[in-house]
Amino acid sequence: MAAETRRAGAATTALLLALLVQAPGTRAVTDDMLKVACSDMTPRHTGYQPENEIGVPCPFRLTVDPSTPVVPGNMVNLTLWSLGMATPFKGFMVQARDVNGRVLGTFLPECWNETRHHMISCPNGDEPYNVAVQSNNKYKSKETFTWVAPLSLEGFIRFKYTVVLNYEHYWTNQETEDIPVAKISQEEFNMKKSINPQYYIYKLYIQNCFS
User: Fold this and answer.
1) Residue 201, domain member (yes or no)
2) Domain assignment of residue 46, yes or no
3) Do 45 and 153 form a contact (C-beta atoms < 8 A)?
4) How far apart are CA 34 and CA 122, in angstroms?
5) In the chain, how many H helices and how many E strands?
6) Number of domains in the chain
7) Which residues constitute the signal peptide according to the record (predicted)?
8) pTM for the whole structure
9) CB atoms within 10 A of CB 141
10) Position 23 in a domain
11) DSSP notation for 122-154
12) 58-106: pLDDT as tens digits
């Protein structure tokens, strides 16, 4: 009976997460089109090359909230913003990567069922919903994300991002500095490991949005 209850709980959590992830929005492009750029983070905009490849500095930054250090199994808050809030952007792709270039972690759904961005699962990573992308083609000057570090994470990571101003102008493969990963005790690791992964992510979503 206990095993059946756990399975039912996991199934319910998976359904809730799926509904959150698939909340309706005015998608600028399809997820399949976005997934083409999973590895090189480069939009397929025929006839145009990234602005950074022709020496144009990127007017956007991705910053990590210093109050949320990278701790295995914990949330990290990120903000993508326009320098001086002067240049809005339409599209973006945000990932965390390890030193070997693997995509890491899971992005949480937006709070309050907003539809500014959503998550996709890129195949060059082990966790689901490991990339954040835009959900509409409206101009925006700032976007915030919550990312969950993998429990087995060690060493250093970097966040990478691509930002699209419009079809003709975009910047690819921008990076943060190396970010150290804090160590956790064996007791904390075992405690987090004992929780069903889907339920654990759902609990973090509730904590992030409703506590």
Assistant:
1) yes
2) no
3) no
4) 9
5) 4, 11
6) 1
7) 1-28
8) 0.84
9) 15
10) no
11) -TTBSSSS-EEEESS---BSEEEEEEE--TT--
12) 999 999 999 889 999 999 999 999 998 778 999 999 999 999 999 999 9
